[in-house]
Structure formats: structure tokens, C-alpha cells
Design a protein that fits this description.
Keywords: Chaperone, Coiled coil. One of its GO terms (biological process) is proteasome regulatory particle assembly. By secondary structure, the protein is an alpha+beta fold. It contains four helices and five strands. A hairpin with a 2-residue loop joins strand 2 and strand 3.
Length: 201
């Protein structure tokens, strides 16, 4: 396996492999300590000579020396491995953050392209009288009209076009499409006589 920091991006399974190796090393270190323990509790620093300076004959000196040497080597390996685990985790987290930022940027770009692909409005609602058919249908001030029945940006000349459509649609549902807050919204409008002026208000 390539160590973290190589040209290949770190994966979760790389980290799992590093952790498995760390567990193995810890088990080996523990085994070496147990071996020292079995030799009359000799640790890492107890003297291996007796009071007169002779090698102790109550323990297996070779085993003790080997175990001590192994512990030092294994602990160094363990330290290096822990550094690798840490670096690998950092890389994974950095990649997650990058991915999150990329996803956000893509979502934003998509929203932008959607707003660019919105149809062209030909009129804006500047007033809606409360209680009027327009108000009841949900039309709002600042809605930008892109379709009003059969009228759209391609055939709209002036407000007379809308007035004609309204006259012909009295009492019948009329499909109106507006842009509100950067999104297309469909409004079902029924022009009809009411207490106020006109058929819409």
C-alpha cells in the first residue's frame, strides 16, 4: 500500500489498513512487555547485572535484551504509523470539505443557469387591489409576467393585448405564468366582475 501523501488520494480503506497495522503493532508491544514481566518483572530500565556487576543468572538475558530492543523499535514504528494515520485522516477530511464546497458551487451554478433559462417577462405587476380577482388568485406586486393566457414576450405589443385576453376570458380560468423570486410560478386567474374597477383589479 502506498503511504498517505503519495500521488494517489487517500481512501477510507487506506485508513482502516493503517489502523489495522497500528493494532498489530500494539499487540506485539504488549507481548514484549508480557515477556519482560515473565522474567521476574524486569521492565525497560531495571539493571541486568547483579550487585557485584555480573550478568544476572535468574533471568534469560538474551530474551530480555531482545524484548527491550523490539519494544523500542516497535514504539518508533508505532509513532510513525500514528503520524500516517493522522495525515490520512486530515486528507480525508480536507477532501470531504472540498467535495462539499464543489457540491455547493455546482448547486449554485445550476441555480444560476436555471435563472438564466427563465423566460423573458414582458410586464410587471405594480399594484394588486385587495379582494380583487387578481388578489384572490395569488398574484403579487413585483411579479414579472411571462405568459398571460395566449400573450407572451413574442406577441406582446401593449397592455391592450392583455385587456383583450381578459375580456374574452371573463368567468373562465386563465393561465398566467410569472417569475417570482427567480422562480417560475403558475397562477390560475379567473377574470370576473367584482366590487372594484375592471375584471382583474
Amino acid at each position: 500500500m502506498e503511504p498517505p501523501g503519495g500521488s494517489r488520494p487517500v481512501t477510507v480503506s487506506d485508513v482502516q489498513e493503517l489502523v489495522r497495522r497500528k493494532d498489530e503493532l500494539e499487540a506485539q508491544i504488549k507481548a514484549c512487555y508480557e515477556l519482560l514481566e515473565s522474567q521476574k518483572g524486569v521492565g525497560m530500565n531495571e539493571p541486568l547485572v547483579d550487585a557485584e556487576g555480573f550478568p544476572r543468572d535468574d533471568i534469560d538475558l538474551y530474551q530480555v535484551r531482545t524484548a527491550r530492543h523490539n519494544i523500542i523499535c516497535l514504539q518508533n514504528d508505532h509513532k510513525a504509523l500514528m503520524k500516517q494515520v493522522e495525515e490520512a485522516l486530515h486528507q480525508l477530511h480536507a477532501r470531504e470539505k472540498e467535495k462539499h464546497a464543489r457540491d455547493e458551487a455546482e448547486a449554485l451554478a445550476e441555480a444560476m443557469s436555471q435563472s438564466r433559462s427563465l423566460p423573458q417577462p414582458f410586464a410587471r405587476v405594480n399594484a394588486v387591489t385587495p379582494g380583487s380577482p387578481a388578489s384572490v388568485s395569488g398574484l403579487q406586486v413585483d411579479d414579472e409576467i411571462v405568459e398571460f393566457g395566449s400573450v407572451n414576450v413574442n406577441n406582446f405589443q401593449n397592455l391592450q393585448n392583455i385587456a383583450a385576453v381578459v375580456q374574452h376570458s371573463e368567468g373562465r380560468p386563465l393561465s398566467v405564468t410569472v417569475i417570482r423570486g427567480g422562480r417560475k410560478v403558475h397562477v390560475g386567474l379567473i377574470p370576473k366582475r367584482w366590487a372594484g374597477k375592471g375584471l382583474l383589479g
